[in-house]
Amino acid sequence: MQKQWMNRSILSLSIGLAMIGVNVYAAEDNATDANSQITAAPSAIEGTTDPVAAESRAQVEAPLTNDNNPNTDSAVVNTINERSDSTAASTGSTPAPDTTTTNAASETPSMVPENKAAGVLQQKADDASTKSNLEEVFTRSEQQYSLSKRGSYSATYDIDYTYYRDSRLDLALSDSSSTLTRLRIEEDAQHTITNTFTFQYGLLDNLTLTASLPLVAKSDNLKDETTAGLGDLSFGARWEPFPLKAGRLPLILFGSLSTKTGDSPYEIDATRGLSTGKGYYSIGGGASTRKFIDPVVLFASGSVSYGLKESGLDQRRGERTLDEFDPGISGGIAFGFAYSFNYDVSLTMSYQQSFSTNSEFRFTSGEVSTPADQTSASLGFSLGVRVSPKTIVNGSVGFGLTEDAPDVSLGLSFPLDFLGFGRETR
Q1: Is the peptide bond before 295 cis (omega within 30 degrees of 0)?
Q2: Which helix or strand (DSSP H or E) is residue 359 part of?
Q3: Are residues 41 and 82 in the same domain?
Q4: Residue 22 structural domain
Q5: Total domain count for the chain?
Q6: Burial class (CB in 10 A: 0-12, 13-18, 19+), 214
Q7: Whole-prediction pTM value?
Q8: Do 95 and 171 have their domain in common?
Q9: pLDDT tens digit string along 247-262?
Q10: Which among 218, 199, 109 has a CA at the least distance from the CA of 157?
Q11: Among 82, 116, 150, where does a domain finish?
């Protein structure tokens, strides 16, 4: 009886151990299937750029890393990676990266290739810059600060308007005494429009020749007269003696010859006529320089001119007859700055002051009149606007600061390249 009981106990123990083994084997199969599904999930998402799929992939891979889940057995993770590699090899796809060392979020491929993106963002050789644009706009409005390339030529049209208003005293004294016989206050207003065509040619890279043809129209309210005609032709040259060098300011020397082709103020009827020129020949010269400090350019210039004496005039002035006129010496200075707002618009502000001295009037009676030295100063603003890739228009406005300067002056300048008067060389 006791022996039968022992046999039954052994049989029951054997059946129990067998059932435990079946359960363990089933659990291992379920774990294997789960690992296969987890490994297949990244392979299905691999290579896509869909952000939702990328996020799902990150969520699937995150529990497999020891950093995100410290309780994960490293042996299980290695097994999963090995099975993923073998699966990728059998399907011919790219194996998933090792998630133990790579963050899943950084594996999403970029829509723009890295080398192409860098090329797009880099500045091209033909791209405009603020400095190059400012230099081009500035030199178009202030030509005496620049030169033309050898063999190139251009033409520019300028229209300028000036307005003078002044109060004059008309006095008369008795010949026998100092008694005042006449006192009148006359209001004078004069309008002048000057159309100037300027041509320049690059004889050498450091030598530019210029010529100007002015057409003048005037109106005087006091004399109730108007006139129009040719002004004084002028010729000039700009020369840069030293090549550009880093750390040294550029220096441009310029000279000019002005003719008396316009109507002379010393040959017309002084009581009624209007002149379109200054009435004498003059030669002059000067120097200019500039300094670019992006986005600003500073500039300055100085000039001096000497007028040649005119004789044999025979102009009636009151009770006297003018015989000779000596213009003397005149000159001026200018300085200012230009600022670039953007690639298309730049503003220039300048101060100009001129003077004349040592002039003399000689009459047939032997009398010599020496007028006081004159000084005129003005403040000007110029706006340069690029209206096309090769055309820049400059508009200017000026205000007189002394009695001898125009009260108001307006100007407009643009190149005549669209008419065929221009050629550039590089």
Answers
A1: yes
A2: none
A3: yes
A4: 2-116
A5: 2
A6: buried
A7: 0.66
A8: no
A9: 889 999 999 999 999 9
A10: 199
A11: 116
